[in-house]
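[User] I wish I could look at a protein chain and see how it folds. I have put the entry right below:
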Amino acid sequence: MSRVFILALVAGLITGCTTQPSADPAPTPMAVRVEITSSLEWLRPDLAECAQQTPGLTLSVRFNEVEAQSLEDSDVLLRWSNLAPASVAPFEIGKDSLAVIVNPDNPVDTLDASQLKDFFTGQATVWTDPEGAPLDSVQTWVYPAGEDTQILLTTTLLADSPIATTARIAPNPAAMLEAVAADPQAIGFLPARWLDSTVRQISITGYAGDQWTLPILAVTQSEPSGITRDWLLCVQDQIEP
């Protein structure tokens, strides 16, 4: 037997006896049920992307109004609100602010808070130019009463005053964008993360705008851990400050 062959045989025996490192066990598959409000529909692609980046996670997302959200049938509630049910674990994963919007052809750049309130309560019904001369009629757009975006405006600026009977209802921010973009006389409002080039945000004076900035909350029954925690941390990273 040649020397080369003997060395090769010994090397093979050593290799065969070496214990191979075991691979990390695959994570146990887990289904996470999530409820979001319409104000956070813009977040859906990030939710899905983070689910793909979280091994073992199967994600189920459905819409529900903030007042109807429940942890009885879901694991995580996502809402644009500073309110959370008692005895749960809410934590902030981002922020957003309310934006008042008009059609890009509308010449108005600024409204006083009292003017804005009068529009939405029906006390004022026409646009005016900088000198106060009347222009065209105002068409206000609002949301259903249970939407978190509507709740924010109603409980702050409007102080729970009745909405004008002439106001039209957009079911969600996407519909609000479409409606205001199609009507030069329209005025509406939505979470600022929905803004795009089809509408124009106007400034509101005489009002503390910080009242219109709210956290994006993730609400869970207890402090999240494991796969759920990894997924929520990814979502938090996806949301720009």
User: Anything to note?
Assistant: The chain is about 25% helix and 30% strand. Confidence is low (pLDDT under 50) at residues 1-20. The longest helix spans residues 3-17.
